[in-house]
Amino acid sequence: MKNNRHLTIIIFLVFSCFCLALEAESAQSIMEKNDAVPEGDSYRKSMVLLVIKSGQTEKKEFITLGKEYDRSWRKSSQFTFPSRMGFLVWDEPGKDSQQWIKLTSGKVRRIATSEKDNPWMNSHFYNQDISRNYIEDYDYTLLGEEMVAEQECYKIKAVKIRGEQVYSHSIVYIGKNDYLKYRVEFYERGLHTKTLEFSNYETIQGIPTSRKLTMTRTDGRGRSILYTKEAAYNIPVDDRALTREAF
To answer: pTM surpassing 0.85?
Structure first.
């Protein structure tokens, strides 16, 4: 009987480890399918940023260009209203994002790592939020399923394991039917501080595009909304347009 109990315990432990392995694999597989959603090799977008604080709304408009370089990405945002500021981002898997800002004076300044959790263009997005997320830089755990925006979604915990870490972790909601991202909850030092919602999806040139991104503070200190007015994908983008000199 004693040997049978030991055998039962061993089988249970093996089965538990097997289930945990399947769970981790499932979360990874889901995120890989999300990562495989087409997004084009380049793009040009006309954007509107609304920053809502204390009942006041500040409107900004800009043009953003992006281009892939063998999985590395470069993106330049040139503001056209109300100022002529600019923001440049170079992203690469496993490495800290490189960012520069062009001030209203015309001076170009490098964004330090310690500034990645600063507001981007005075909005509720952080500088880090403008950078690209690479699937291999995170560890994923499947937490279950939940309805988001009338969509059945996988609920996945993401912990960054490579590069700079602004957030302790995030909870990502991926559509079960289309593997699109519908919500991300951000945690800082274990506290839920911000929520990003993806809505108004539209297919443009075969690319699923969320025309509305809403970043909301959980402490009630407002929200920021990014609207995509126009988008064009797989277009020629001059490499020089994605350099500091182009500012």
So the answer is: yes
Beta pairing partners, 108: 102
Residue 92 CA: distances (Å) to CA of 2, 76, 98, 99: 56, 15, 9, 12
Sequence-ordered list of residues with C-beta below 8 angstroms from that of 246, at least 6 positions apart, any chain: 76, 240
For 150-172, give the DSSP string. TEEEEEEEEEE-SS--SSSEEEE
> Is residue 22 over pLDDT 70?
no
Structure tokens at 171: 């909870």
CATH superfamily of 42-246: Lipoprotein localisation LolA/LolB/LppX (2.50.20.10)
Nearest in space to 167 (alpha carbons), one of 214, 117, 224:
117
Domains of the chain, residue spans? 42-246
Tens digit of each residue's pLDDT (9 = 90 or more) over 179-197: 999 999 999 999 999 999 9
Give the count of alpha carbons within 13 A of 240, CB side only. 2
Per-residue CA distances from 241 to 63, 87, 131 (Å): 12, 12, 18
